[in-house]
Amino acid sequence: MESNQVCQSCGYPLKKDKQGGGTEKDGSISKKYCSMCYANGFFLTPSTIDTAEKMQKFCIDQMKKSGINGIFAWLATRAIPRLERWR
Question: Domain for residue 47, yes or no?
């Protein structure tokens, strides 16, 4: 399986993931998803997040709570609809 440069759920750069990525059911590191989105083979986002648009809004809200500027958060999440999970 080829490795991605960004999480295919939220777009976070996998190189910056302090956990090294999310985990699969067998405990191995996911090559597609970050640790904020995926653990033990399951997505961590609320079940109501079922579209790219909802994911983008969720990520923007989380980034703003972390002190990130809203405009930067919007720019950083623009690619979410093109990520593998949302196609």
Answer: yes
